Amino acid sequence: MRWTNYFIPTSKETPRDATAASHVLMLRAGLIRQLAAGVYSYLPLGYRALRKVERIVREEMERAGAIELHLPVLHPLSMWEETGRVEAMGDTLLRLRPARDGDEGDWRAQTVLGPTHEEVITEIARAYLSSYKQLPVNLYQIQTKFRGEARPKSGVLRTREFLMKDAYSFHDSLESLNQGYQAMYDAYCRIYDRCGLPYVAVEAESGPIGGDASHEFMVLTDAGEDFVALSENGDYAANLERATCLTAGSVEDETVPRTPPAASGEPPLEEVHTPGHGRVEDVCAFMGLTPAQMIKTLIYDLKALRREGGKEIEWSGWVVALVRGDHEVNEHKLLKAARAALFNELFLSFELATPRSIEKLTGAAVGFAGPQGLSERADALLIDRDVAAMRVAASGANKTDYHVKNVVPGRDFGILPNPSFKCAVVVADVRNVVDGDLSPTGSGSPIRLRKAIEVGHVFKLGTKYSDAMKATFLDPQGKPRAFIMGCYGIGLNRIMAAAIESHHDAGGILWPMSIAPFECLVLALDPRDEQVMRTATIIHDALAERGVDVLLDDRDERAGFKFKDADLIGVPLRVVVGKKSLAEGVVELSQRREERKEPIKPEDAAAEVASRVASERAAGAPGR
Amino acid sequence: MRWTNYFIPTSKETPRDATAASHVLMLRAGLIRQLAAGVYSYLPLGYRALRKVERIVREEMERAGAIELHLPVLHPLSMWEETGRVEAMGDTLLRLRPARDGDEGDWRAQTVLGPTHEEVITEIARAYLSSYKQLPVNLYQIQTKFRGEARPKSGVLRTREFLMKDAYSFHDSLESLNQGYQAMYDAYCRIYDRCGLPYVAVEAESGPIGGDASHEFMVLTDAGEDFVALSENGDYAANLERATCLTAGSVEDETVPRTPPAASGEPPLEEVHTPGHGRVEDVCAFMGLTPAQMIKTLIYDLKALRREGGKEIEWSGWVVALVRGDHEVNEHKLLKAARAALFNELFLSFELATPRSIEKLTGAAVGFAGPQGLSERADALLIDRDVAAMRVAASGANKTDYHVKNVVPGRDFGILPNPSFKCAVVVADVRNVVDGDLSPTGSGSPIRLRKAIEVGHVFKLGTKYSDAMKATFLDPQGKPRAFIMGCYGIGLNRIMAAAIESHHDAGGILWPMSIAPFECLVLALDPRDEQVMRTATIIHDALAERGVDVLLDDRDERAGFKFKDADLIGVPLRVVVGKKSLAEGVVELSQRREERKEPIKPEDAAAEVASRVASERAAGAPGR
Questions:
Q1: In this complex, is the C-beta atom of B94 within 8 Å of any C-beta atom belonging to chain A?
Q2: How far apart are CA B463 and CA B172, in angstroms?
Q3: Sequence-ordered list of residues with C-beta below 8 angstroms from that of A293, at least 6 positions apart, any chain
């Protein structure tokens, strides 16, 4: 391909509002153009790279035995109602507008844009898979998804329209699901390897998509919006929502001090006047303590349905969470603990309490709550393991502008369930891990938190969707049973952006060969010089003939300008054809990643480049 | 691929509501599944065929020098307002619903789903193409389109979500546009040839997409919803909207009798009582005439803006159309003639008149209108050429339950413009051609009307979009000029359906090799027989090794059942491996299109199949 016959609108200017390196470079190198917030056009160079990612994904899915199909974007709303996900998805689920506002009978009003395809694929399984003999099956597609992302950002990393590979597997046993899951997990590893992504697989919550086991594939980069917890020795990896660690007071995971560590021998509670010092940092500075010596008391308002005598009664209550002053509550873990503590309730909403509600419970303004006495009034007390393990602590006094010293867990507030209280008391891990926490494996290795981009996610769904949609097969005994399902997603645009985040320098992109839009750039330094252009064209044509993706920069521009563009678009191999070197009988072969230039005879250039491309391709090929 | 590892849900039953052969066969062969009205999932076999069509389209676009990119589905409404197409598209343009009804500030309320991409690509040209030196450029994509189709039907032939290849070219001169247009026209011919489609290219109106020159590519089949007019000797082809012919009274195209053919010598008008006979067939039977002896008088209500003294005044008026009783009005031609007649008006609406309006103009009930005297009251009289050429005719009497005989054009109603009337009088071609009309080329060849499926459309757009969006480039003199554009669309799903319409028999599909989901089916007749399965597997593996798309039917089913499925899914080449023939040392090679079976040694089968596939591929390859 000749540059002058192609369309590569590079730009020297750093775009406004773009901070992530991939975002800046994709705009500058002419890979993408924003059409609306979170909506991008892929320009020719960007689309070439995206198609290469797509090919790798497709090859690895085929190799893993998955079968490709293609599901529609437009879904009937009713199908999402079947699984209760219209509410669960909320504003993420985009809907069509009826032709006349208010005409809910119009087909548009009953149509949504697919943000994912569990419902549609489960309907297909229900229609066509009738016997255990047809299982397992893994069906996948590469298809555009639409989500009502509230705050699109970082270029193609978080958008409203994106390309996803989503696979869905159907099984007749957990054993088969586990095998299918492992096959997808392995395929994902190969995909990232082949795309040149430095990734980690981390344990993850399954989130709103449901189910009970999942892994996320993360690329570590400061442009990421997620955090992962990695142990230094590599024996543990989880995302922040999910990550756990040893308790500060124990070397055994999940070991919780069941008896108060020091119920006696401590001095009694002592009030300290702390006017206006509601925040942990302020009060610590004022009282001469470290945050690790404090207990943070967080109040949540819970609305729930309580089943009483066969009836459901709506009620509201308080859930109190205690974490150390140097820790943060992990709301996923907290919600899980709250559900476990109040297992008989159906949660309607669970949110940080309003100042008015906090004052009603504690009798004090925000910032002065403490655990003492709250278990007599709250509905659940959820105590982080590290709080339960404290010998003595400071906390709010439940009195505006006062704190207390000498708070002893187990003496001043219960850490064991007490049947005489209406309040459920649970000790659990309800905080985020922090840098330096110890790996839960017990290896003693410290955990480090790293920013990351999620590029894939594998889930064991179980029967969540097949139950909801009554999708069954007949087992060998002729009994109908719900499909056991897995689902597996990869964001293709994110792979491309993550590759750029991982591989760039000040001058531009350093594409991995496997997904580079072109594998070799032939740069004609003096295109007006007949011998230069003839030589460059011969090398270009010879490379194209050998199946190398080659771009010939035949633009009549200054050498410096063309070298800058070459660095920016980041083609891995480069052949520079100039008057001066030709006079010496050579052209210059170089790699984008290296300064070093090798003189090579023009007639040997194509063979050398083709052989390097072939060996890099073989390294990433599906057969290895 | 083994059938038992794949997903081909064939069915014996003819689906309800499916009439078109392609619709029935795509459902029965397990190629598609309907998700909602006009919305289909492509099952694995169907998606394989669709991807082959996609590959052919991509190869031919690349060969023609077009550059691939990928534009979003979500468009800002404002971009469609820039070109005035929100109104022009009407309910076809699908919009997102705001998260809260009535919240027009929500981004969703300002977002539409792309039914086509002229606006988005013109914005890209405006942003990046600044000089004539960058022209011409042809940018294309293969992307899903969304249209609010009111009556989806015939399976994937008319849907709300479909895959389209759309290309847009940008030029600095009409000459360059014509070259670019021709290159696309030729590429389209190659695409249809390679896909095995018997197509015709016909002249077409450009329709709401604008511009002034276009061709449609049509596949002739009774499942089509469009009509094309083809001359028997092949010298003329146009779609029905556009098709014209010689006048009945003349052998020269566009020759209109400027003087009444027989103004004298005819008896005077004579009223005939025709109670209740308002319809042409009825009154002809009653009066003993043929429809060709009648004049049909159609009244249209026009609302328009009239410019008077620099002001625009809204007014309403009548347009009267006259066609012979055996002809139908062509509303596209009529609208064009009305615009030409009333060139100073801006049309707001143009519709068949209401009974009340007809009675007001003619003084008679619907069915009894005639041309006599109407030019004194109507605003335009649009007379079909064949009416103007009549010597004498019958028509309504403008009196309920009465017709008149001896109506003489030019005597009883004006056929020449008359400055003393307020009414514009125009003689023009305002009817549909009918079977037997003569080709407008003057060759004397009769026209035949055929049903057809539109599978592609090429347009010369001119500057419609670049003007509206102020998209300009600098010409060699440094002057900004609007891009001259072309656009070129192909419906991929329709190509697939049209191929099935053209190639099937009672048993199922007869895929052209180029787009068949598999090229060869190896049918193991007795899969429980070890030697049969071993032989079938060896042949299958050898074919896969040679790059042939091969499917092995390894299902443990009756031979008849498997043969029926083989016919249904229509794989072009077949190798049948059975116990009986193996005992004779052979397997059977056959084609889906032929009854004939050739015995062949098992060890020769793969080489023979591979060589036939290779020769069919070469016939359709881009290089030929």
A1: yes
A2: 11
A3: A284, A325, A393, A394
pLDDT class of A377 with cuts at 50, 70, 90: confident
Alpha helices in A385-438 (DSSP H): 385-388
Interval B117-127 mean pLDDT: 98
Token readout for A281 is: 């940092």
- What CA–CA distance (Å, rounded) separates B307 from B134? 42
Task: State whether residue A95 sits within 8 Å of chain B by CB.
Answer: yes
What is the rounded CA–CA span in Å between residue A513 and residue B411? 83
What is the rounded distance in angstroms from the CA atom of residue B486 to the CA atom of residue B169? 5
| pLDDT confidence of residue A622 | 54
Q: What is the ipTM of this complex?
A: 0.88
Tell me whether A99 touches chain B (CB under 8 Å).
yes
Coil, strand or helix: which one is B589?
A: strand
Of A48, A76, A96, the CB nearest to B94: A96
B157: DSSP letter = G
**H or E segment to which residue A529 belongs:** none
In the 3-class helix/strand/coil scheme, how is A452-485 assigned residue by residue? EEEEEEEEEEECHHHHHCCCEEECCCCCEEECEE
Q: Which domains does chain A have, with CATH numbers?
A: 21-71+115-218+449-500 (3.30.930.10), 74-113 (no CATH), 270-428 (3.90.960.10), 518-620 (3.40.50.800)
Nearby residues of B561 by Cβ (< 8 Å), 6 or more positions away = none
For residue A143, list its beta bridge partners.
A164
β-bridge partners, A449: A229
Please compute the mean of the pLDDT values over residues A384-413 and round it to a whole number: 93
Beta strand segments in B519-567, E: 520-524, 550-553
pTM over 0.90: no
| Residue B162 at interface with chain A, using a CB cutoff of 8 Å | no
Question: Using CB atoms within 10 A of its CB, is residue B281 exposed (0-12), middle (13-18) or buried (19+)?
Answer: exposed
Report the gap between the CA of B463 and the closest CA in chain A (Å): 21
